[in-house]
């Protein structure tokens, strides 16, 4: 505390004193201007705490509340005594406030002690304010009750402020942050210190029940596992519920979940849950999607060529299903229909169906169709372009694949081994190349598990040219050729019948007129070839 007076000329000494509450002075320090010595009075409160400088500035260390006094600086000359007071104020910052005796939990609609805010060692006394989420809590009768107490320590003179808060919470107070702030005064003015915020567990009753289906999928299919979960919006949440299953009149008591495994279509319906006292209830509807497929016939089926085979793929589903057919790993454009089975109809058929809206719901059944047939043979021959050999082809149909053998009757050399084409759709061909020295007969034998078929063909000597016969081309072209051949055969047969009738009439006429007979060749086959064979035999005899 600097002395407020100017040091006058002729100063003899200076003194500091303080005034008691009753106004009486207590001297505490003396300094002579001539002897330069300092003396401190025997005052217990200031022992070893004072220091007086040459310019008469008084310093007090380890300030105390009791130092809050009126101090006076005195300067004395021979002619005058001057005095000037200094008012000392002492401040002590309080400790950070704490919320003590906190409630374990808060219940709605019930006024209860939330806690006490305590701040210690303040001087002068401070004030306490409660806050919720940063806003001041104002007293409200029956809802917010605040009681502030201030106590002073008689030894230190410091104040302790204690503020209790009674509070009636609501659901909105969940996760609310409660804090208290102490306001105190310091040398520079008003200041505040805030406590750490506290969050309380607020209990409130359940007002609504909700049922959920887990997993939360838009579609459920047969075979799935589903879990019903019931929850209440109270705190703490209910731990037990009643679950009502379609077809059951009484609720099933369970925890907050009810599990159903490998559900079937009959699980479709309304599911409900309620509190155990049946006071609240919620419901949801579950649809279990299903997909059935019935393929008739299915598995391995063996039929004979030319037979009919009705095939049906019947679908039953909870929604419109997509159906498609696959044959030998290739998707078909239409459903199979067999009015007359052919070898190319054989294969592995799959009828498959899906529900596009339901992931993973897919069904399929297979039909392995085997078309069997006895061996059928057609033989063709032609003279090769080199005029040195002839090619004889045996066209074979049948399943299981027939084994083919050749036999030659007559003189002629086989120029190479028999060759077979690829076996496709029950058809293949076997051919040999021969150079006959004379007329020969070739026999093609085809045999499978069903039958043995034998067909022979006469082949002229190499010196006699053969008319080329078209090979069996198969497929659509062969069908067209067959149709054309049937038409031609029909025309030829009609012409032959007309010629036969004309011949009979002519024969009767000649018999009556000339009584002559003629030999009619019974062979209506290849007349030109027979003539050539006769001429060749006649030359051999000569």
TrEMBL record:
Q: Which SUPFAM superfamilies match?
A: Immunoglobulin (SSF48726)
SMART domains linked: IG (SM00409), IGc2 (SM00408)
Return the InterPro entries for the record. CD80_C2-set, Ig-like_dom, Ig-like_dom_sf, Ig-like_fold, Ig_sub, Ig_sub2, Surface_Rcpt/Adhesion_Mol
Which residues are in the Ig-like domain?
A: 85-194, 205-287, 306-368, 375-455
Localization in the cell: Cell membrane; Cell projection, Axon; Cell projection, Dendrite
Which keywords fit this entry according to its UniProt record?
Adaptive immunity, Cell adhesion, Cell membrane, Cell projection, Disulfide bond, Glycoprotein, Immunity, Immunoglobulin domain, Membrane, Repeat, Transmembrane, Transmembrane helix
Bilayer topology: Single-pass type I membrane protein
**Superkingdom field:** Eukaryota
Which Gene Ontology terms describe the biological processes this protein takes part in? adaptive immune response; cell adhesion
First-listed, main subcellular location of the protein, grouped into a coarse class: membrane
Transmembrane found in the keyword field: yes
Spans through the membrane = 487-509
What is the protein name for this chain? CD166 antigen isoform X2
Q: Which organism is it from?
A: Geospiza fortis
